[in-house]
Amino acid sequence: MQIVSVVLIAFLFVTLWRGVRIVPQGEEWVVERLGKYLGTLLPGLHVLVPYIDRVAYKVTTKDLILDIPEQEVITRDNAVLITNAIAFVKVTDTQSAVYGVTNFQLAVMNLVQTSLRAIIGDMDLDQALSSRDQIKARLKESISDDVADWGLTLKSVEIQDIKPSPTMQKSMELQAAAERERKATVTRAEGDKQAAILEAEARLESAKRDAEAQVRLAAASAEAIKRIAESIPEKELPAYYLLGEKYIVALKELAQSGSSKTLVLPADLLKSLEGMMGRRA
Fold first, then answer.
1. For a 10 Å CB count at each end of the chain, is N or C smaller?
2. Which pLDDT tens digit goes with each residue over 212-221?
3. Which run of H or of E encompasses 199?
């Protein structure tokens, strides 16, 4: 009798446990009656028909974070890239999520990978590496309708990495090094060219100034001769004066020269000048 009582108590406990269910916040439970969909239990207390109704699926309604594994993708110009992503989805229709596809999480991951390969396959290498936001937008647009059929809402999808494969990366480094060397060579050539131009312009400017100085010096000499001729009546004396002045300056420079050891001055400067001009005293 005691054993029967224990069995009855156990049966009542199991029956009560199977009939009264509490769904926690953040979950929805799918109930089947005799193998057929009966309804979806929202958070709270619920009473089921024991042994006939059963909770077939427990689905979280929080945002799901799906880490999309790395994969190799090929761009339009045959460059191999390695990329991965992360998707944030939310179950908005529990019945469609559990009955619409075998495994909706795996389905979303494969859908993202396939769409990612298709989008990057339409791009060149440079465009793929510099258009992360564009890829993200096209990816979200292309899979939003598909996941909606499974009772899901795509909240966001982010491209985590998009990088060249190791072989491709090595080739790009060599290309970048060659490009930097080419630019350095061009810069050096431009610098040499500019320096040569500046040097030629400096010589031209110096020659112009030398010519201008000689012209002004000649004008000054002419003006000096004119003034001396006007102040000295005798016709030849101005020339003697200027010639003597230059002669004295030349002797002075000769005397200051370090290589000159002996300097002989003419006894009669005027006679010497007359001799230089071919005039006899």
1. N
2. 999 998 888 7
3. helix 166-231
